[in-house]
């Protein structure tokens, strides 16, 4: 008998899965760190328009969000299909914008109260009338810094 | 007595647990949009004095209920808006005190005197779509940015960047304070030369 036995060919060695948990953990940590928890549940349709000349928004705690658009499909039976404003978690009328903004400003620390920005997250199909009304209310509340939140992309997409 | 062996805990299910967590985070992750067009609203008090502005220094843009554009009383496509606004800003038709030293435009006496005097007035209808409004705003801002980029490059060739890049650098927290001060001075100078005067009229009811 020879000392060197020939290995049987065709028998593939099993791939070691010992490093699989490490790989998965790496992915897990990536997603854990990038995840941002949503504060508001959207009740309106919110397809933002696109723009190219965008600027980054300030830190998250310096921003007040106002949503507007048609109510989502499941709320349409109750609220109709005309565009509505959403503040925090509920549908609101234009008159409620000012108290909301003033309450938001009051809830922030004193140092940043005059650098707050109002982000308008408005659906592309909304009529400008509603937005002008919101802007008038913001002027009355003296919250003059606003930001039209948009996605980055070609403007011509808006016209289709 | 022989030492009893501690049985090893099997790590085989570790991957499954990690996968479960991974899938949870994958599903809950939403990509937040946190960028947009910044605007400053005018204060609520009505202006005290009436400012007289020459008609030729105003560039009127109207958007009607069918999302059509009327620029300086002429129908226009959105794609031509930036160029028209740029031409208007860069015109520099003023003479004497109002002359514009850096403009390269046509020097038409019927168009704006000086970028500091030029005002773009935007009026839309209550029925106009928000996305059209954003598109128009974007194109007008783009005209300003193009002009500012050109002047920034011409005035500060040593920087090897344009106005937008310089603004980004200024806003970047990694930039050192001394560099920021230096940039701020330059940016303010360009902004003084070409102020963004975009006025919005009350929307028309129809």
UniProtKB/TrEMBL annotation, chain A:
<keyword id="KW-1133">Transmembrane helix</keyword>
<keyword id="KW-0813">Transport</keyword>
<feature type="transmembrane region" description="Helical">
    <location>
        <begin position="12"/>
        <end position="37"/>
    </location>
</feature>
<dbReference type="Pfam" id="PF02472">
    <property type="entry name" value="ExbD"/>
</dbReference>
<protein>
    <submittedName>
        <fullName>Biopolymer transporter ExbD</fullName>
    </submittedName>
</protein>
<dbReference type="InterPro" id="IPR003400">
    <property type="entry name" value="ExbD"/>
</dbReference>
<dbReference type="GO" id="GO:0005886">
    <property type="term" value="C:plasma membrane"/>
</dbReference>
<dbReference type="GO" id="GO:0015031">
    <property type="term" value="P:protein transport"/>
</dbReference>
<dbReference type="GO" id="GO:0022857">
    <property type="term" value="F:transmembrane transporter activity"/>
</dbReference>
<keyword id="KW-0812">Transmembrane</keyword>
<keyword id="KW-1003">Cell membrane</keyword>
<keyword id="KW-0472">Membrane</keyword>
<keyword id="KW-0653">Protein transport</keyword>
<comment type="similarity">
    <text>Belongs to the ExbD/TolR family.</text>
</comment>
TrEMBL record, chain B:
<comment type="similarity">
    <text>Belongs to the ExbD/TolR family.</text>
</comment>
<keyword id="KW-0812">Transmembrane</keyword>
<dbReference type="Pfam" id="PF02472">
    <property type="entry name" value="ExbD"/>
</dbReference>
<protein>
    <submittedName>
        <fullName>Biopolymer transporter ExbD</fullName>
    </submittedName>
</protein>
<keyword id="KW-0472">Membrane</keyword>
<keyword id="KW-0813">Transport</keyword>
<keyword id="KW-1133">Transmembrane helix</keyword>
<dbReference type="GO" id="GO:0015031">
    <property type="term" value="P:protein transport"/>
</dbReference>
<dbReference type="GO" id="GO:0022857">
    <property type="term" value="F:transmembrane transporter activity"/>
</dbReference>
<dbReference type="GO" id="GO:0005886">
    <property type="term" value="C:plasma membrane"/>
</dbReference>
<keyword id="KW-0653">Protein transport</keyword>
<dbReference type="InterPro" id="IPR003400">
    <property type="entry name" value="ExbD"/>
</dbReference>
<keyword id="KW-1003">Cell membrane</keyword>
């Amino acid at each position: 008998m020879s000392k060197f036995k020939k290995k049987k060919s065709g028998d593939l060695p099993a791939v070691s899965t010992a490093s699989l948990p490490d790989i998965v953990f790496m992915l897990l940590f990536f997603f854990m760190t990038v995840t941002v928890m949503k504060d508001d549940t959207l009740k309106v349709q919110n397809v933002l328009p696109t723009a190219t000349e965008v600027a980054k928004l300030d830190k998250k705690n310096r921003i007040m969000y106002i949503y507007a658009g048609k109510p989502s499909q499941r709320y349409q039976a109750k609220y109709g299909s005309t565009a509505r404003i959403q503040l925090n978690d509920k549908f609101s009328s234009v008159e409620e914008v000012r108290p909301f903004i003033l309450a938001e400003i009051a809830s922030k620390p004193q140092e940043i109260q005059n650098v707050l920005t109002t982000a308008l997250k408005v659906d592309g199909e909304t009529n400008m009338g509603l937005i002008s009304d919101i802007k008038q209310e913001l002027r009355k509340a003296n919250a003059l810094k606003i930001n039209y939140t948009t996605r980055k992309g070609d403007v011509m997409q808006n016209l289709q | 007595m022989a030492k009893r062996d501690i049985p090893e805990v099997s790590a085989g299910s570790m991957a499954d647990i990690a996968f479960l967590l991974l899938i949870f985070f994958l599903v809950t992750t939403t990509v937040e949009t946190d960028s947009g067009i910044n605007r400053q609203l005018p204060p609520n008090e009505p202006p005290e004095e009436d400012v007289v502005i020459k008609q030729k220094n105003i560039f009127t843009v109207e958007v009607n209920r069918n999302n059509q554009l009327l620029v300086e009383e002429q129908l226009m496509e959105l794609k031509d808006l930036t160029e028209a606004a740029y031409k208007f800003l860069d015109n520099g038709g003023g003479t004497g005190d109002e002359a514009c030293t850096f403009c390269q435009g046509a020097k038409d006496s019927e168009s704006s005197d000086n970028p500091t005097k030029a005002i773009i007035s935007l009026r839309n209808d209550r029925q106009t779509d928000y996305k059209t409004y954003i598109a128009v705003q974007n194109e007008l801002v783009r005209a300003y940015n193009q002009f500012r980029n050109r002047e920034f490059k011409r005035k500060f060739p040593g920087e090897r960047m344009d106005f937008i890049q310089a603004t980004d650098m200024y806003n970047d927290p990694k930039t050192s304070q001394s560099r920021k001060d230096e940039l701020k001075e330059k940016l303010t100078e360009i902004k003084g030369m070409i102020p963004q005067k975009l006025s919005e009229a009350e929307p028309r009811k129809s």
